[in-house]
Amino acid sequence: MKEKVSIIIPCYNKGAYIKEAIESSLSQTYPNIEIVCYNDGSSDNSSAVIQEFANKYSNFLFIDSKENKGVIAARNSAIENSSGVYILPLDADDKIAPTYVEKAVKILEENSSVGIVYCKAKKFGITECNWILPEYDETDFLYKNCIFVSALFRKSDFIKVGGFKQYMDKGLEDWDLWLSLLELGLKPYRINETLFFYRQISENTRTISANENSYDLFLNIIKNHTGIYLNNTDIAKRLLSYNPNKLLKHRKVIRKLIITSIIQLVLIFILVICLILK
């Protein structure tokens, strides 16, 4: 028996699209699939659409929350209630190709050092085009995410790092998770096929929120993954050759980082004094 894969679909007011996301999950060629759909207090017909699938399929778990708790809590709760060895998050308006899970599981099973498996992607909806994302680079990844949330990972690793973090409630929670998995010594792997489809709609509230809070979110990333940044030898080179104009543009982030570092040093100094005097 193949290890079970839980496809996690949080849904908030995506009744117009959720059916396509679920059908793409049910169409997987991989034989052991569980679908966990979390309705996050939707005010549209999402609950009714999801319930139709829950009534029809035995491998379908429906969590119907009457309260809107946000996508991080929704994903974490769905994963906590899942029974799969592997996890694949899927947003309610996106889709995956039939062979995605099968091919991604094969990579994880054959490579213990790999902890994140993703693929090439295509945009659809108001625009139709390939989603051009840069290939993963260890250093570049510290500055910008290139892995979308619909990647396969082990549930055991997800639990080790504490899941999606609430401090990233304004966005980029997937990037934060990937950095946590990298800190375990795991590596990402991209399948060289287009197996994920990202829906473009007129307004994506998560994207807007992430853009509006980009400074604070990036600060949270650095504060909570300090080790992985300090251990990268290229960081110093980039700082020494940094364009002054770009440095000025990002002065707000730099100022916050300096203040945070000073506060941390003061706290450490106080702690050391207390230990000496004790």
Describe this structure in words.
With 278 residues, this protein is an alpha/beta fold. The chain has 2 domains: 5-212, Spore Coat Polysaccharide Biosynthesis Protein SpsA, Chain A; 242-277. It has 12 helices and 9 strands. It has helices at residues 18-26, 46-56, 71-80, 100-110, 155-160, 173-183, 205-212, 214-224, 226-230, 234-240, 244-249, 251-277; strands at 5-11, 33-40, 60-65, 86-89, 95-96, 114-125, 129-131, 153-154, 187-200. The strands form 2 sheets. A 5-stranded mixed beta sheet has the order 3-2-1-4-8, with helices on both faces. Strands 5-9-6-7 form a 4-stranded mixed beta sheet, with helices on both faces. 29% of the residues are buried. The model has no long low-confidence stretch (mean pLDDT 89).
Radius of gyration: 20 Å
Note the total helix count.
Answer: 12
CATH homologous superfamily designation of the largest domain: Spore Coat Polysaccharide Biosynthesis Protein SpsA, Chain A
- Percent strand equals 15-25%
CATH architecture grouping of the largest domain? Alpha-Beta Complex
- The CATH topology label of the largest domain is Spore Coat Polysaccharide Biosynthesis Protein SpsA, Chain A
Q: What is the structural class?
A: alpha/beta
Helix content: 40-55%
Global outline = globular
Count of β-strands:
9
Low-confidence parts, pLDDT < 50 over ≥5 residues? Answer: none
Domain count, please report it: 2
Largest β-sheet summary: 5 strands, mixed
**What is the ordering of alpha helices and beta strands?**
EHEHEHEEHEEEHHEHHHHHH
The CATH class of the largest domain, by name, is: Alpha Beta
Strand order of the largest sheet: 3-2-1-4-8
The average pLDDT is: 89
Euclidean distance between termini CA atoms: 58 Å
